[in-house]
Amino acid sequence: MNIKVEKQFQVSAFFTFFLIHSSQTGIGILNFQSQVIKDAEQDAWISLIITWVTTQIILYMIFKLLGGETNDLVAVHQYCFGKAFGSIMSIMALVYFWLASLTVLRAYIEVIQIWVYPTIKTWQLCFIFGLTFYYIISSGFRSLAGFSFWGVILPSFLFFLIYFPLKHTNYIYLLPAFSHSLKELFVSSKAYALLFLGFEWMLMYYPFIRSSNNKDISKWAYLGNTYTFIVYLVITLISFSYFNQDVLKHLPWPTLMMVKIVKFSFIERFEYVFIFIWLLVIISPICISLWACTRIVKRTFSIPPKATLLFLLIAEMIASVYLQEFRSIDYLVQITSNAGIGFVYVYLPLLLIIKWIKSHFMKHKLNKI
Q1: Cα–Cα distance, 312 to 308 (Å, whole number)
Q2: What would the pLDDT profile of 143-189 be if each residue is shown by its tens digit?
Q3: DSSP class of 71
Q4: Following DSSP, what letter does each residue of 235-249 receive, concatenated?
Q5: Interval 203-215: pLDDT, tens
Q6: 63, 112, 195, 224: which could join 17 in a potential S-S bond, CB 3.0 to 4.6 Å?
Q7: pLDDT tens for residues 97-148?
């Protein structure tokens, strides 16, 4: 049941770092602070550590799932549930992957319409983005991995902008530390968990990573997840010490509000530059999730990826145009978030248990023979 991918279509294990980090860094980094601070307040950074550790554990489980004769999600499903029911479970995963792509796209369009072009039509942005996504994804996984690389490297200079809000921080806002219960910390860690979603797409692109052993891939995956943790930790601490808690709880786009104070003699509104550079960041999670969808369809029904991609993009554009009100967009985010947490933190551990039980049963049966 192992899928063999020709070497010319594979990428080095080194790219796992960029694939993992670019998948986890999307539109949520612009407004996560108001969600995570509701329960744990100034101690929410502890919740972030809890989420990072939990995510590392789930990554370990994913590598266990992809070991042996099953090196992608479709193979795992067919091994555990058989071809018919396994295909149904793969299609359900496809729906979640597609929803994740739609959520990131629609949230980014909302940012553009609120901050930059209030009068631009949703369908116009959808058309431009749709052509871009089709070109990148149809070029193959190697091109997608290369774009993930530059999507991490090029925007990285934006982190030097923390110098500007850092001058106005008040670290008293971070005190008193360790003053919240475990329940409050775990509730906030659930909000942080949404930011780390995206690493589960490795379940589909794992066969496309070239490595002599599993440890090379896992090493870069853990490092990519850790780098995501460091980025969110820095932004969390600066945001919490820059804004008062009561203000931060009701602030819609805290990261953009901090960027708004950046002033250069040659640029008046630097947040516009930030938003458009961030397009390089959000393209990766959208394209990787859509690529994973086309891969599931190809593995399950042998339908050409380009045909599937065209259908999924059209459906995504139509859905984006249909979702106009803020409430409907928030509802979409909530659905996708619950589906992601259920898939990653509930379903994947259960799937690993089912695979272990079946492997143990098969070995026992073979020993009897």
Answers
A1: 6
A2: 999 999 998 998 888 888 888 888 888 889 888 888 888 999 999 99
A3: -
A4: HHHHHHHHS-HHHHT
A5: 999 999 987 677 8
A6: 224
A7: 999 999 999 999 999 999 998 999 999 999 999 999 999 999 999 999 999 9
- Whether residue 366 contacts residue 83, with contact meaning beta carbons closer than 8 Å, is answered with no
- In contact, 205 and 292? CB cutoff 8 Å: yes
Helices (H), 159-213: 163-166, 182-196, 202-205
Whether the bond into 176 is cis, omega within 30 of 0:
yes
CA dist 217 and 59 (Å) reads: 11
Inter-CA distances, 294 with 21, 128, 204, Å? 21, 21, 10
N residues, the chain: 369
- pTM equals 0.93
Q: Is 189 exposed, middle or buried (0-12, 13-18, 19+ CB in 10 A)?
A: buried
Distance, in Å, from the CA atom of 96 to the CA atom of 86, rounded to the nearest integer, reads 16
**Long-range contacts of the stretch 216-221 (C-beta < 8 A, 24+):** 216/13, 217/13, 217/16, 217/63, 218/59, 218/60, 218/63, 219/13, 220/13, 220/14, 220/15, 220/16, 220/17, 220/20, 221/16, 221/17, 221/20, 221/59, 221/63
Tokens encoding 247: 């203000």
From CA 153, how far away is CA 25, in angstroms rounded? 13
What residue type is assigned to position 86 of the chain? G
Domains of the chain: 7-357 (1.20.1740.10)
Tell me whether strands 11-12 and 209-210 are parallel, antiparallel or unpaired. Answer: parallel
How many other CB atoms sit within 10 Å of the CB of residue 54?
A: 17
